[in-house]
Design a protein that fits this description.
Distance between the termini: 33 Å
Number of strands: 14
Number of helices: 2
Radius of gyration: 25 Å
């Protein structure tokens, strides 16, 4: 996937207001360009009514970029929200452009509301033919119809300032997301896409912002110690239950990666542990690489390339555990295989 983030210096130079992903897919035998626009929930989100988050009043909490005070209703999202997609050739000339509707009244939808694409609601063609747009979707449409949450047309499912999934609607997407699939045959070689305008009325920031494209920041959490939401938990984080290497089935940290050091006698879990729960290798206290367990090991139990060590990006407790000889903030850096 190709991902571009968009920032406004008036809001934050480090936190994107939006990001755009693009990919090429084959659906039903057709070559398609898939473009997705995702807006920062601190700008606008799919919370409304009594369960609005960050929209002022007595709701579940304020956004990280500013504070709204006007509340947020379901019909705020239905009334006029849309996003403009512009596809250009290699010279920068626009060859296909349209507004995609976010969600509007639709008697044929289970909930009575749906994304109407480029030919209904707030959607419209600007340049080119509507036949070039093969599919379209938005997160609110999926929430209400595809996910079966058609009853949430007054209040969104309850959540908190961290957008914790609601037990009554666990698949609800609180983000505002626009998806569009365009026929590759309608686009020239070297095409590019831009999002020159997004209408979100109201937004939490109560203003209009000019944004600039720039590289995206790294994810907050990648790899071991991360849950599916990208949140860091476990011994490598400031707090939380244990996820990943060094954790047992109860979410408890055991083994060399924990603050207490090596847990012998069957207490070792994850890389550097054998099936009996004993710790081997450089991750153990005073451990020698007599047996190789886990990544960087060959089929015979010996270390690939010589001695047992952790590759760049792996969790570590000291420099000697890393192939590069450098352990920085619990992670091997600057890999130099040995």
């Amino acid at each position: 996937d190709d991902v571009t983030c968009f920032y406004s210096s008036s809001v934050s130079d480090t936190t994107p207001l939006a990001f755009v992903e693009q990919d090429e897919e084959i659906i039903g035998g057709k070559d398609l360009a898939h473009v997705r626009l995702t807006l920062n929930p601190d700008f606008v989100d799919n919370t409304y009514g009594a369960n609005a988050v960050g929209w002022g009043g007595t709701d579940a909490g304020g956004p990280g970029m500013g504070m709204a005070s006007h509340g947020h209703t379901f019909f705020d999202l239905i009334d006029s929200d849309h996003a403009e997609f512009d596809f250009a050739d290699a010279k920068g000339d626009i060859v296909l452009a349209f507004d995609e509707d976010y969600c509007s009244a639709d008697a044929n939808a289970p909930s009575g509301y749906a994304c109407l694409g480029v030919s209904g609601g707030d959607g419209a063609m600007i340049t080119g033919s509507a036949s070039s747009v093969e599919y379209y979707a938005t997160s609110l449409d999926r929430d209400l119809n595809a996910c079966g949450y058609e009853q949430y047309t007054t209040d969104s499912p309850p959540t908190d300032a961290s957008y914790t999934p609601s037990p009554e609607a666990p698949d609800w997407d609180f983000r505002v997301v626009y998806d569009v699939w365009v026929l590759e045959s309608a686009l020239p070689a070297g095409w590019t896409v831009s999002i020159p305008y997004v209408h979100a009325s109201p937004s939490k920031l109560q203003s209009t912002y000019t944004v600039t494209a720039a590289p995206c920041p790294p994810l907050h959490c990648v790899g071991e110690g991360c849950n599916p939401g990208g949140t860091c938990v476990g011994p490598w984080c400031d707090a939380g239950s244990c996820v990943g290497e060094g954790c047992n089935g109860n979410g408890e940290c055991v083994g060399a990666g924990c603050e207490g050091g090596s847990s012998g006698g069957g207490g070792c879990v994850g890389e550097g542990c054998n099936s009996g729960g004993e710790c081997f290798g450089l991750l153990c206290d005073a451990g020698s690489p007599t047996e190789c367990i886990g990544e960087a090991c060959n089929d015979g139990g010996g270390a690939t390339g010589g001695s047992w060590c952790l590759v760049d990006g792996a969790q570590c407790t000291d420099d000697s555990a890393c192939c590069s000889g450098g352990c920085d903030d619990g992670m091997c850096v600057g890999e130099t295989p040995r």
